Amino acid sequence: MKIVIIGSVAAGTSVAAKARRNDESAEIIVYEAAEDISYSVCGMPYFLGGEVETIDELIPRDPQWFKKRFEIDIHTTHFVKAIHPDEKTIDVYNKAKGVSFRESFDKLILATGSYSLSPAPFNLKQHDNIFHVKSMDDTRAIDQYMKTTDVKNVTIVGSGFIGLEMTEQLAQKGLNVSIVELADQVFPKIDADMSVHLKKELITHGIDLYLGDKVTAIQGESKASVLTTKNGVELQTDMVILAVGVRPNTNLATNTSIQLGQTGAIKVNEFMETSVKDVFAVGDVAESFHRVTGKPIYHPLGSTANKMGRIAGDYITGGKLSFKGTLGTGIFRLFDLTIGYTGLSPSEAKAAGFDPVVVHNIKPAHAQYVGGKNMVIKAVADRETGRFLGAQIVGPQGVDKRIDVFATAISFEANAEELFDLDLAYAPPFSTTKDPVIYTGMVLENAREHLPLMTPEEVISKQKAGEHMQVVDVRSPKQYEKNHVDQAVNIPMPKLRNRLDELDKSLPTVVYCNKGVTSNTAQNVLRNNGFEDVYVLSGGNTNFHYYLDSLN
User: Fold this and answer.
1) 48 near 92, Cβ under 8 Å?
2) CA distance 260 to 248
3) What CATH number does the domain containing 357 carry?
4) Model confidence over 145-184: pLDDT tens digits?
5) CA-to-CA distance for 450 and 444, rounded, in angstroms?
């Protein structure tokens, strides 16, 4: 069997390695248009910022290593011009020798990855100080430019993963960094009331933000020197990083019968097979599907690409591995914060047909007496079944640990109440007696069953609509005077039982404290004294003002 793979980063090399582990007799050939293989795209910002000392650390393998270890032939600087699935051949151009040839295959794997977008008015060919961060050539070019040019002001266009990672790294390098983002929030992947924490972090570190804006004009001949935005801002710049997203590189599928999916990536089944027999697609070029909804999604990530490659390599050599879908899990660092997310957001859950219950949980990553700092968890479950659907977390500590537990729970279709049953590791330097994961499950299940929550957004919406309700602040008078929810009355928790006659049992009532723990006690007091329609303000006064900040 002759296996031909086009592309040799995360997915392509994973196909080759797994196929060889399963089958010593197969002929395995890989064609790569670039000079480098098996490199870490995700590590590029950290080399450019100086955390990674040498660029070679991002390229752990070369063709000779694969030849020696796996008897796999990887041909770099070989550009595949066309594929002919019906004939089982491909056209290859050897860039070094300047010659073309035709190659046959029994199994063909497309691992052609994705390409970075260059929205108007940007033209990388016209300006030599505008860059993508996608390939090793991009990374070398940026590194060389910064070494040979007096770069002081950098503009990052886009605030996704790469944009924010580059922002952090270049700011830590001492450069003045500005972000221009088309959306009205930083990192549009997460909800606005969570994104506000990223905005504050960026401002704290001196980053200039231009949200809800875009670059419309560029001044400068060979170098972009001034960027003009739609809102009339003029940004002096020495270097521009374009980080507005990627698209699947499906060029080779054009003019063939290979079907594209709803997302624009190549449609595949659970074994990475395309619509054409003996042709497979893996990595950023392939469409995925969501593990909860079953619907197609496009989620380009190195870990997913590696997994897809392993599955394809196994299947074509007689194995039984299959792709189970993705939750869209992601995580990154932004200065002193970590941001993680998995599963469905509340709006995505609603669009998928669920009735979402949403909670905001503000808890320390571990015991505060040994330095634990608060993280903000926003979680969602289905009201009818209790199924845990998703979470977003922002905080300086412990985010990675919790988001992975949440992702595992969703993968095995756990209910919110089952989070409480988890036997998680506890010691003061690592957790709290009620770990934030466990506490999230408790609050979700309570809210779903008999102790409902109301989000800040819902409270404000009802107040603006003139709905009759009463809001009770159960904190101390001093805390109340500092800031409070509009229209709230202050009845401290220790005095609540003796002042119930000041409240109207017939009205919907929202109680809140700083973060939600004391208000849960207040909710039980009111319910046990004949108040039937009682809600806790999700995340308390702290989260309420986070939400207000997100509106500005």
Assistant:
1) no
2) 10
3) 3.50.50.60
4) 999 999 999 999 999 999 999 999 999 999 999 999 999 9
5) 10
Q: Is residue 322 part of a domain?
A: no
The dihedral sign for the CA sequence 492, 493, 499, 502: positive
Phi, psi of 548 (to 5 degrees): -60, -40
The stretch 189-203 carries a mean pLDDT of 97
User: Where do the H-state alpha helices sit in 9-159?
Assistant: 10-22, 44-48, 63-70, 136-148
Say which of 42, 59, 124, 233 is annotated catalytic.
Answer: 42
Last residue of a domain, one of 222, 244, 266: 244
Beta strand pairing status for 388-395 and 215-219? unpaired
For residues 189-207, give the mean pLDDT: 97
pLDDT digits (tens, 9 = 90+) for 42-54: 999 999 999 999 9
Question: Under a CB-based contact definition with an 8 Å cutoff, are residues 239 and 233 in contact?
Answer: no
What is the structure's pLDDT at 487?
94
Per residue in 376-404, is it b (16+ CB within 10 Å) or e — as a string? bbbbbbbbeebbbbbbbbbbbbbbebbbe
Peptide bond into 121 cis (omega under 30): yes
With contact defined as beta carbons under 8 Å apart, do 459 and 510 qualify? yes
Cα torsion angle, 59, 65, 70, 73, sign: positive
Do 239 and 252 lie in a common domain?
Answer: no
- Asked if 244 and 117 touch (Cβ cutoff 8 Å), the reply is yes
pLDDT in tens, 374-416: 999 999 999 999 999 999 999 999 999 999 999 999 999 999 9
Alpha-carbon distance 123 to 120, whole Å?
Answer: 7
Active site residue 42: yes
The answer to whether the CB of 220 falls within 8 A of the CB of 230 is: no
The pLDDT tens digits of the residues spanning 330-366 come to: 999 999 999 999 999 999 999 999 999 999 999 999 9
| Residue 162 identity (one-letter amino acid) | I
**Does one domain contain both 466 and 530?**
yes
| Contact between 18 and 314 (Cβ < 8 Å) | yes
- Is residue 449's pLDDT more than 90? no
Tokens 């002096």 belong to residue: 236
Sign of CA dihedral 19, 20, 26, 31: positive
Range(s) of the domain holding residue 202: 130-244
Whether 92 and 29 share a structural domain: yes
Cα torsion 124, 130, 132, 133 to 10°: value is 150
Strands 73-75 and 296-297: unpaired
